[in-house]
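Page 37, top half.
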Amino acid sequence: MLGPVILAASRSDKMRRFVSAAPGTKQVVDRFIAGETVDHVIPIVEEITGRALEVTLDVVGEDITTVEQSHAARDAYLELVGRLKELGLGERAEMSVKLSMFGQALEGGHELALANVRPVVEAAAAIGTTVTLDAEDHTTLDSMFAIHQELRKDFPQTGCVIQAYLFRTEEDARRLAADGSRVRIVKGAYKEPASVALQDKSEIDKAYVRIMKILMEGEGYPMIGSHDPRLISIGQELARRAGRKLDEYEFQMLYGIRSDEQNRLAAEGHRMRVYTAYGTDWYGYFMRRLAEKPANLLFFARSILTKG
């Protein structure tokens, strides 16, 4: 039951200040965040891809309040694309973006986010990679899917994310699976009301399996975002039943979590992508990671007590 409390705290400025100032925070943040700048993250990308893994890169910082900040977010991703091009990593590293960071929640935000994300998608395509649009809370999804559809007219490889705990997601999955797009499925990491989302973990897991089945039997490219050994095993079996080859779907896990399992799946021939976040505005991302797994929260609490 701690998850909803932590997710509520992720929106609290008071909690942000407390967590940021806690003496053990940096040790735990470093587990999930690959650094603050592109110079910090590039060596990590090289290390990960050197282990036969792939990467998706997220510049954290969705809580923006000005148009200027949305342009800065666009420019941060364009800088990242330039560095990936210099190092020849385009085919091994894609990018994940949150449209809120590109201005989606501002006045005229739908058009602003589309205008900001398009040059990033175009630049990514020019170096042989792509962009996946991350899912955020349910109020943003119609805009996200509309932007996804618009981008795919010129860049059909553009991906998107769906969340298993939302009631709408099975219908979204059927539409996307028939559309030939790249779709990442995750359980969901935002505080959502019972009117729009499942609240029970076992029911969310069941929905996740149903949606994986839809994606595996469809025409798109499924990306299974999970650290759950049981769901990963079920995903492998569903892929086998659907007649998919190993390069016709992939698994994704977060940087800093279950590295041994990431290596094992890659060694078996699976495509394994590591979701790697970096940047200075790490608080919201960090709190969602704590909410997803109680062990992460216990690790954080022990670090604070040890360093305090």
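Page 37, bottom half:
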Amino acid sequence: MIRFLILSGYFELMMYLQVSGKLNQFINVHYRYLAILSMIISLLLALVQLYFWVKQEPSHHHDDDHQHGLEKKHQRLLAYLLLALPIIVGLFFPTVSLDTTIVEAKGFNFPLSEESVGDPEMTTQYLKPDTSLYFNKDDYNTQMETSLARYDDQTTIKITDENYLEVMELIYTYPSEFIGKKVSYEGFVYHQDQDDENEIFLFRFGIIHCVADSGVFGLRVELPADTQTKNNQWLQVEGTIQSQYYAPFKRDLPMVVVDQSSTVEAPDNQYVYRAF
């Protein structure tokens, strides 16, 4: 019976995440079909467990676990804990609020910084989405060169939700190829205290595969003089990519010198996702 409750609970949780739209805060939306598949399988397994439980004589219910090889109490507890883990995570680990406090709390570094939990296997990416972690060197270079070729003849690149992470990775990987090109994109304002008033970062939160490799991605932006902005404000900008030395990181960074900017409403889904 416990197996039925866990499996049906997982199905109900996934159904809730699907209907509420919160699933996209946990995984790349391009992998949604896997979540739907797991939901269907969990429902089928739950029905199978219910069928066998109902068919058993009441006197045999307490022997259920022994018949499946879980003879010791701690083995049963461990098995149930592992089965219930996705439900525990979904219920008791709330999704993060998307604003500049996330950047400040986790320490704004480039290109990678360890999570505040101190787990070296968990990293938050900043500025540049780095998908090289998931490919061998040759395959990664081939993929990047193929992607770069799509933008070679474009003097103005419109950065959208669909290509956001791809273009950002290309700009940081091949900065010289993009200097002089115009780009347009939108994101939320993050201003470093030590920077000039009109120099900001314009960010989007992104997910490469799942929330474990999520990050804060975007570019330095030089706004026209006297432009008033505040943290978390959403802007749409259009300008030319240049390269400028950024003292806090002790390196050159690509920067958008803005010609036009306007305030926009934050999108319903503030995440962007990497398409492969």
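Margin note: The chain has a mean pLDDT of 79.
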